[in-house]
Amino acid sequence: xxxxxxxxxxxxxxxxxxxxxxxxxxxxxxxxxxxxxxxxxxxxxxxxxxxxxxxxxxxxxxxxxxxxxxxxxxxxxxxxxxxxxxxxxxxxxxxxxxxxxxxxxxxxxxxxxxxxxxxxxxxxxxxxxxxxxxxxxxxxxxxxxxxxxxxxxxxxxxxxxxxxxxxxxxxxxxxxxxxxxxxxxxxxxxxxxxxxxxxxxxxxxxxxxxxxxxxxxxxxxxxxxxxxxxxxxxxxxxxxxxxxxxxxxxxxxxxxxxxxxxxxxxxxxxxxxxxxxxxxxxxxxxxxxxxxxxxxxxxxxxxxxxxxxxxxxxxxxxxxxxxxxxxxxxxxxxxxxxxxxxxxxxxxxxxxxxxxxxxxxxxxxxxxxxxxxxxxxxxxxxxxxxxxxxxxxxxxxxxxxxxxxxxxxxxxxxxxxxxxxxxxxxx
Length: 427
Description:
By secondary structure, the chain is α/β, with parallel strands linked by helices. It is 32% helix and 21% strand. The protein has helices at residues 16-24, 76-88, 107-120, 132-141, 153-174, 182-190, 193-196, 203-212, 244-249, 284-292, 311-321, 360-364, 391-404, and strands at residues 3-8, 29-32, 41-45, 48-52, 65-68, 73-74, 97-99, 103-104, 200-201, 217-220, 258-266, 269-271, 305-307, 309-310, 325-329, 339-348, 351-353, 367-374, 407-412, 420-422.
């Protein structure tokens, strides 16, 4: 049975949680393989809305084993708070498995993240200030603290001492902030150990054994392709690998076991934070998309920047990830528009680019070349088959499918679990 990756095809917030939940009853394991609590998924089940940050969406499916993989950075306090909130709402959270090799976000990295962003001023990156970037930097600098270190007080102390030799100097001498003491950090982290330990295992072994038993493993990305640290709009990116390749490194599943890549793409485009965004709207149309689509961050509450569908980005995501299927979400938000622009290429200094420009400067100066598709006025939120959609809505889906490099297998027509049209089965 397959390992399936679910990837964001734009700058995040495309609705990956809903797509994961759609498959949740048909898979055995759902794995979060990158990121931390700097992003979130919103899942609506009947009249209940769940905002998930660190936890995989599979936590809401009673027959699924949810897994936090080695590629995630974990704020343990946030993890426990999220588990407690779900348990208080009647969700069984006892099945969660956490990689022993995942890195932990210590409080000093949250302090470094916040003061660094303030120090950058107009050059800020738009981080959430939750310590994600500094923790990934520690990982690459080999001064990070992993989950397994919380169960050996001697090793933990040595690692905290090593990290604070550097971080303490940064906080005090560069940013004029108080550096925490070693005892303070060690005590803080050890306090989590007893509750965390029963959840911890070799998740790479767990997942490969599951595949050996012909179970289905779903790998769920945080953020999205254009925020990938290698393939995104650098430096305005996250600190982890958000692509299908990152699904392998962040979970311990080898590439040859990845059978399907499902990319989630909105029927328009949004992003949060700084960085170039060719189709961004600064007029009433952008405000209409924001209000109608409720485009505010699940984790931060920040209003999202909004723009029209960008087929250049979709084609890029299809190529980088090896996309087999697109899930097009929020088609209902476009209802009531007389015509719907779609970006089919960019103009950069009078030169047409049908693919992503090779350098960031050109992308920053790209202006969209639009095709205009006829809109529709009918309410589509109750449509459950493709034929139920108005003719112009069908034509819109078919047009962006032809431009985007892979088939559109699922169309979202509303926020609820049921508001979904399946054109091609995903499993």
